[in-house]
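About this split. The held-out portion is used to measure sequence recovery: a designer receives only the structure tokens and must propose an amino acid at every position. Recovery is the fraction of positions where the proposal matches the reference. Here is one held-out target exactly as it appears in the evaluation file.
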């Protein structure tokens, strides 16, 4: 494959005009680029950062068959690629001088790209996250839900919402932190939240969904404070937001779960979510200069090592 089969642009409208149909053709698998790029289109790319995001599409025979996007100061998110296509993309981006802190994609694509990026830049990748993508099949609420009800979150709940989202990112090891001062710029600010409340009106769990794009809604995040877990609240609130998404006309309701958290994986499958694919992210350190195809480290040349594995965070249910 030739590098010029990849077409790069900083114009989100031009990118969507050319690649939008491809992304919408598989809304469950392409849920992350659909939601992120729609947010950029709606809010304007200039509002995101001083630098412009970069979008790319792979074309063959006039048809788009893969895409990527890269936000300023962030890593690369790419749709499924063959190992050959991943290698060509890595070589192309390296030749253009891109510096990537990480890559995020389905597991096979992320691994192929990480290995190719190491070959072309000398940066040793570390597996930092492994999660599983689910799509809702037939919603199957538990036979007995905990006492209480779901309630759509309002402006009066902002303090509680900010607190719980801050606890969530701290628990799962996300960055940056979330507090009242950073809320408006966080990834949670445009979510639609629901609380599960006890009969006396006390919130005990929360779940949120993204705005619908191409008939797809993603449930993200789901959080119950540690001292309230194991009582069925997470399942109840996830059922609540899933049911509401279907009632609003969603054809694809998806969510991610950490593969290292058997509790949440079992819960989502019990209520009707079906695994779609494994997802992974690899972090890259600053690349060492390469000498004759070898990686130069402290004056000694060593051959690149295979990707290593970092400790994975557990996402709470």
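Reference sequence for scoring:
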């Amino acid at each position: 494959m030739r590098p010029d089969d990849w077409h790069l642009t900083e114009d989100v409208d031009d990118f969507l005009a050319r690649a939008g149909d491809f992304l919408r053709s598989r809304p469950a698998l392409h849920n992350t680029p659909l939601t992120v790029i729609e947010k950029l289109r709606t809010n304007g790319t200039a509002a995101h950062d001083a630098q412009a995001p970069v979008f790319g599409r792979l074309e063959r025979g006039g048809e788009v068959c893969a895409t990527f996007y890269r936000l300023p100061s962030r890593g690369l998110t790419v749709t499924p690629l063959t190992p050959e296509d991943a290698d060509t993309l890595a070589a192309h981006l390296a030749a253009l001088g891109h510096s990537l802190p990480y890559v995020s994609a389905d597991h096979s694509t992320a691994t192929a790209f990480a290995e190719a990026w190491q070959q072309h830049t000398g940066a040793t990748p570390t597996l930092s996250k492994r999660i599983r993508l689910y799509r809702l099949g037939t919603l199957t609420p538990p036979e007995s839900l905990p006492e209480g009800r779901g309630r759509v979150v309002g402006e009066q709940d902002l303090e509680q919402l900010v607190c719980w989202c801050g606890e969530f990112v701290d628990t799962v090891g996300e960055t940056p932190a979330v507090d009242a001062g950073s809320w408006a710029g966080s990834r949670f600010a445009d979510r639609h939240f629901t609380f599960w409340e006890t009969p006396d009106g006390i919130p005990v769990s929360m779940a949120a969904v993204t705005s619908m794009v191409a008939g797809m809604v993603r449930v993200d995040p789901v959080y119950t404070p540690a001292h309230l877990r194991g009582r069925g609240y997470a399942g109840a609130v996830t059922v609540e937001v899933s049911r509401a998404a279907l009632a609003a006309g969603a054809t694809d309701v998806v969510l991610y779960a950490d593969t290292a958290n058997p509790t949440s994986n079992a819960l989502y499958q019990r209520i009707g979510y079906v695994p779609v694919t494994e997802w992974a992210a690899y972090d890259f350190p600053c690349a060492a200069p390469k000498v004759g195809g070898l990686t130069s480290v402290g004056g000694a040349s060593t051959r690149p090592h295979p990707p290593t594995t970092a400790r994975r965070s557990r996402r709470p249910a």
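Annotator remark: Confidence is low (pLDDT under 50) at residues 287-306, 310-315.
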